[in-house]
Structures are given as C-alpha cells and as structure tokens.
Amino acid sequence: MKTITVGTDDHSYPVHIGKGLRFRVESLLPRDYQKVLIVTDSNVGNLYLNDVIHAFTKGQQVHVYIIPAGEQSKNLSEFEHIHTFGIEKGLDRKSLIIALGGGVVGDLAGFVAATYMRGIDYIQMPTTILAHDSSVGGKVAINHPRGKNMIGQFYQPKTVIYDLETIESLPVREVRSGFAEVIKHAFIADRQLLFTLLQEMESMEHIDPGLLQYALTRGIEIKSHIVEQDERDQGVRHFLNFGHTLGHALESELGYGTLTHGEAVAIGMWFALKVSENIFSISLPVKPYEYWLQKMDYPLNIGNVKLEHLIDLMKTDKKSTGGQIRMVLLKDLELPKVVSLHDEELRQMLRIFIHGGMKE
Amino acid sequence: MKTITVGTDDHSYPVHIGKGLRFRVESLLPRDYQKVLIVTDSNVGNLYLNDVIHAFTKGQQVHVYIIPAGEQSKNLSEFEHIHTFGIEKGLDRKSLIIALGGGVVGDLAGFVAATYMRGIDYIQMPTTILAHDSSVGGKVAINHPRGKNMIGQFYQPKTVIYDLETIESLPVREVRSGFAEVIKHAFIADRQLLFTLLQEMESMEHIDPGLLQYALTRGIEIKSHIVEQDERDQGVRHFLNFGHTLGHALESELGYGTLTHGEAVAIGMWFALKVSENIFSISLPVKPYEYWLQKMDYPLNIGNVKLEHLIDLMKTDKKSTGGQIRMVLLKDLELPKVVSLHDEELRQMLRIFIHGGMKE
C-alpha cells in the first residue's frame, strides 16, 4: 500500500493506493462510526459491495443506497432521494457516507455528504481509473440540464481508499475513458510520464500492471499537488481543466453518456493542443498523441455536432466569465496557461477541427 | 452606521447596521460586480426592491428573482429554479447574489450562492428582526419534508447590510417572531439586555427605537462572537440552539407557517427554562418571562400536538446524535450548557408542559 497525503485548508487526508484495500476499510477510517451509508451504483454494487459491507466488523449499522449506473444519475432527484433515505435511516452528524464507485457516485454521494445536515464525513472509494482524478480534491456536484457540475461545492473527503483490484474488472471503454485524465496529468505536469504512456502502451485491453500502478500513482500525486496549492479553483487548479472546455461541451451537446467523459476530454485535449500550437506558434507532440488515440481506439468521429451549440456551451462553462471562453492551453509540455479567447477566433479553429481534423 | 466585523476561517466580513443603507448598497460592496442577482420575496419586493435596484449606478446587469413569501419557499424546487434562472441570465463565478429579505430568503439564496458553480459571492440584506440572527454566521439551507434546514451548508456572506428602516414596515407578528431570537441572545449571553427587555418593553406594536437598535446591535455582537469561536457548529455555537429543539419540532409538527419560527422558539425557550430548573435544581426568571410572553401576545396554546410526534421530531433534529435528544439548557443566566436527555425523562416533562403549563 502506498499513501499520499493531501493537505487542504480544512484538514489533511490520506489517499491509500493498493490491492485488496476494500477488505481493510474499517482499519483505514479516521475514527469509528456507528452508522455508515454506502452509496454505490448498480454495476459496482454487484461486484464489491459485499466485500465492503463485510469489512465492518464492530456491529456498525451499515445501510446501502444503489443508484442506476451512469451519468444520468447525477441529478437533483437522486440527490434528494439519498437525503431522504439518510434521514429515514437516522443518519446524524456523526455518521459516515462512503462513495463506492466511479466519478458519478463520488460526485453525487460527496455532494450529499457536503449538504446533509450542513456536512458530514465521507470517504471516497474509487473503482475506476477516471476516479483516480475525481476522488481527490473535494470537488463534488450534480449536473443541471443546462450544464455539467453546475450545482456543487468544494468538500474534501476524510480519506480516499483506492483498491487497485477493483479496476481489474473494468470494461475496456471505462479504462479508455480513465486514461484520458492520466494523459492529461502527463501533459500538464510530467513529460516523462507522457512519453512513457505514448510509447509503451499497446492497447487498452492489456496494460502492464506495473505501468498502470505507476501512472495512477503519478496522476494522484500531480492532482494532489495542484489541489494543495489552490483548493478552491481560483488559480493553478484551472490547469486541470486541460481538454475539458470542449470536452464538457461535447458531452452536453451529444447527451451525457454518448461519449464517456474521458472520451470527450481526449478529443478536447486534441483540440487544445492544436489551438496551443496555433496561438503560441509552437510545436507539440500532436501527431504522436493522434496516433495514440487511434491505437487506443478512442472514438474520434463525433457525428453532426452543431458548431454554434458547442460555442454557446463553452461560454456557459463554469470557468468562463464575462462571455469570453477560457481554455487551458500549453505553452509547452508541463507549461499550462489559461487563455481567454474571443468567439470568432475559436469558431474558426473549431470549424477546421470538426470538419477537417476529426474526420481524418 | 455601526459596523461589526465577523472573523471566520475563510474571510472576515462587515455587518453594517444603520438607517437608509439600502440606498448605499453599491458603496458597501467589497468589490465591483458586473452581474447581480437579487433574490427577494413577494412582500419585501413590493417595498424595497426598487430602492436596491436603483442603488446600482454603474451599468451593472441587475436581475431579480422573486419567491412567494413564506417558509414554504425554502424547498428544493425553488432552489433548482433559482439555479436555472441564474444560468439563463448568464451568472458566472464573478457574479453576486443579494439576499434581500428575511430568514427564508437569506437561507435559500445563500444556499444557491454556496452551490452555484461550487460557490459565488453573496451578501445578506436582512429586512426582518429575526434575520438579525440568521443573516450572520453563514448557515444556509433548505428544508426537507422530514425536517427543517436538513440540506444546507456553512457559507459565509461577503457583507451584511442591515437597513433598520426596512424593519419599520414589519407586521407586528414578524416583530414578535424576531424578538424571540433577541431574547435568546439575552438569555445565553447578556442578563442586562434580558432584564431591560423584560422590564421596558410594553408591547410589540410600539418599541422605543433606541431600545430596538441597542437590542439588535447587541444581538448581532453576541451572535458574531459565538460564530467566530465555532464557525462549523461543533461546540459553543450549539448554545444558539437554545429553545430550538422543541421549537423546530413544533414548527414541523404543526406545519411550517402555523407558528412563526420565533413564536415556536419562544415556546421552546419557555420549556427549556423549566427543564433547566428541573435538571439543575436552580431558579431562573421563568415567571417574568411567562409574563412577558403574555404581555407581548405570543401564542401559547398550541392545540392538539401529539407528544410522540414531538419526541420523534426532537430526535431527528440535526443536533441530536445516537438517538438521544440534546437540548441547550441554562445552568444560570449567561451559562448555557448542552445536555443529552433520555426519551423518557423528556417525555414526562414535555407531557406536564403541554398539558399543564401551556394551557394556563
């Protein structure tokens, strides 16, 4: 087991990474809890829920709330239902919520914990590769029909327990989605990790376990380091949005779930790299990245998206202020920079990207 | 104008108290805002909304969202609608929300601000006496059908602007409701204020303006002092719950709006005083307080409440943990103490209180 500590204004917390940690949850908690609510989804529940339940051996009351798997569950209605369930089961301010699952479960259950009686303890137990990113840093939220993560909060977990065995059962599409965030961390902060991944990965189906653990640990370290500097997303944390401005717009425009989050971000990074080359007149490893995207079977043809819809959506992105579109670009590898772009400037580049680049 | 500074972990903020401050809002803000959303209710909107809108003279976009007056508006549906309205109007992370109204507006608009894009600036402009209390300290929330303020957060405003002219138009029932919290502050922290109010107030209809300003300023000072010591309600802030355990239960059992919040708390304090005398074998000014309640026309006959319902509701109160009922009692004036009581102990005292004391 490897442990990384994340220091935030409110408290520091450990991120434990290792195999079989779900069987040891009880010993990894910061204190004893009499009542525990595990929130998970229909997929993860079938696989690991019993292991976690049985890890509680001291007679704690353990309740379970299962949401339908998928981004669609990250809505106000599920939020309300979990609150109601918690009240019915008598959860109080000393109770614990466990988010067992991917980003959707983590964001939703975390936001419930953040607002239940004005905030109770919760821990993240990510079970996807994508969630190596979302489980660290305390961003919790639900979606609004008009935009992703529009209603939420910053609320740090008490502990993150990342059992690497739980990602072994992931469908390949989930692995692919998650690796987009790993590559993102590499682009903005670790060129060695970037070239290692671009060169050594052969397919999403068979990733060398050593390489995987190295990549995830580095990803969490990079994320933690940034969160520590800027917990409330007012400075360097924006860099983590690399690829996300177009990515979020694509997810919203195509309907959540058509592309996975990571697939959308992978395309968003591709676009951001091209914009970066254009704006800063530099050269970035766009071709090796394109080659990697193809080799790894990322969906690159996004069909008939409406250019103006994407522009509008990019403007409503939480990171945008005053109607301009803010994107994270790279002045070089490991050198991200937030840039404000005018509609027209972006429209042209996006038109070329969609009608040229993406249909190659 | 008098200014009290409240220091919290996140930031310090001023509470401005004085006459005509609504005309000077712009100059009292911490910085310029391009977009402003004023949330108010149908009563307050008719009276003071235009004054506040016209106080913005620099071409800011000022939007208005009006909720129906009353506790019923503090629900998840209004919460969602204000979010939608904000997104439609293009509010971004640099925008400001103004809560213009009483506690309902402040709690609801504050919780929207706390969660809009994970938190934007807001200011409180209380227009009731009750809100002298609720506008300071950053407790924001909405109600759940199973309990008051069950979904919420701690999120401090950037400024509180308390225009004493806005309370001159209050219906007497609102004045009465608000004075319960003033008396509460006196019981837990200022015996001189307590005896001044008990002795010098003749009716709720005609309160000496000097006495009113003195009482409100002291109330805010007491509240601020407690919030600074315990922002997240884990210690001394519990003392502010004096009278609220039974108060909340009464509001919920009778249906929100049957009794005002303050009327319910006034009864709750009466009960808490009797329990205090009983538990600590001491003597408190219960009779002068009863006499004051009657002179001030507080509703003291609460009809056919169900004892067991009240007990159950007191157990679901956010302050309760592990099924016991926690109440704030007084070991003496200015000496509050949180005490855990067993069902049975409380049931007996509550039975006597309801069937004896309350029908005198």
TrEMBL record, chains A, B:
Localization (cell): Cytoplasm
Keyword annotations of the record: Amino-acid biosynthesis, Aromatic amino acid biosynthesis, Cobalt, Cytoplasm, Lyase, Metal-binding, NAD, Nucleotide-binding, Zinc
Enzyme class: lyase
Molecular function via GO: 3-dehydroquinate synthase activity; metal ion binding; nucleotide binding
Location of the 3-dehydroquinate synthase N-terminal domain: 65-176
InterPro entries listed in its UniProt record: Dehydroquinate_synthase (IPR050071), DHQ_synth_AroB (IPR016037), DHQ_synth_fam (IPR030963), DHQS/DOIS_N (IPR030960), DHQS_C (IPR056179)
Annotated EC: 4.2.3.4
Listed cofactors: Co(2+); Zn(2+); NAD(+)
RNA-binding recorded as keyword: no
GO annotations of cellular component type: cytoplasm
Catalytic activity from the UniProt record: 7-phospho-2-dehydro-3-deoxy-D-arabino-heptonate = 3-dehydroquinate + phosphate
Pathway field: Metabolic intermediate biosynthesis; chorismate biosynthesis; chorismate from D-erythrose 4-phosphate and phosphoenolpyruvate: step 2/7
Domain 3-dehydroquinate synthase C-terminal: residue ranges: 178-320
Note describing how the cofactor binds: Binds 1 divalent metal cation per subunit. Can use either Co(2+) or Zn(2+).
Binding positions (Zn(2+)): 181, 244, 261
Statement: the UniProt record of this protein carries the keyword Nucleotide-binding: yes
Chain positions recorded as NAD(+) binding sites: 103-107, 127-128, 139, 148
Pfam families: DHQ_synthase, DHQS_C
Biological process per Gene Ontology, one example term: amino acid biosynthetic process
Function recorded in the entry: Catalyzes the conversion of 3-deoxy-D-arabino-heptulosonate 7-phosphate (DAHP) to dehydroquinate (DHQ).
HAMAP family in UniProt: DHQ_synthase
Family named by the database record: Belongs to the sugar phosphate cyclases superfamily. Dehydroquinate synthase family.
Protein's name according to its UniProt entry: 3-dehydroquinate synthase
Organism for this UniProt entry: Melghiribacillus thermohalophilus
